[in-house]
Amino acid sequence: MRPIILVSTCLLLAGCSRERPKAPEQEPPPEREILPAAAQAPDPRPTVVAFGDSLSAGFGADPGKSYPDFLQKEIDGRGYHYHVVNAGVSGDTTTDGLERVGTVTALKPSIVIVEFGGNDGLRGLPVGTTRANLEQMILALEKAGAKVVLAGMTLPPNYGPDYIRSFEAVYRDLARQYRLPLLPFLLRGVGGHADLMQRDGIHPTGEGNRIVAQNVIETLKPLLRK
Description:
Order of helices and strands: HHEHHEHEHHEHEH
Distance between the termini: 37 Å
Radius of gyration: 16 Å
CATH class: Alpha Beta
Oligomer: single chain
Structural class: alpha/beta
Number of helices: 9
Strand content: 5-15%
């Protein structure tokens, strides 16, 4: 499984060095284009899809302790009746996400949490490419009848203020243009906290993912119906 480099502000500031970090890459897993078996199981409830990279996939956390796993518990505990599908693939860029968007629309989701872009930024890809890919995902998902929640990203300070400002603005601008709920900081209260992060300083522990799910449910609540 390819590790991801998607991070929030505190996480990136805490974990970066003076040299620009490299995005470690491995061969994608054989099941890359296939959603987890749980995602394919029939369920009569409306579907919420966590669509992203390793922060959605739960890279490095124990089974059952990704943020989508905890999000399902949050939804159930609050009396909502939705089925959460984890469609995270570690290492994905926005280009990879755009290539996979059809597997998500095929689920006929009610809500999709779009969490991509960090790998684009850490590879120094053009901001315009990231924006165009995210926009195409949004359009495809909305055309399929899904409500889209956008998770914003940021980069380490050594990428330079101009690039960082342009990169962060992509999410704000798209959220404003398409009137989307924006989750500015997925790892709020988690990034930069050693007790909630794995040793790589990038991915949350199971407990960190539990807090991430709490961040997400607060953004989702206006969209959920009992």
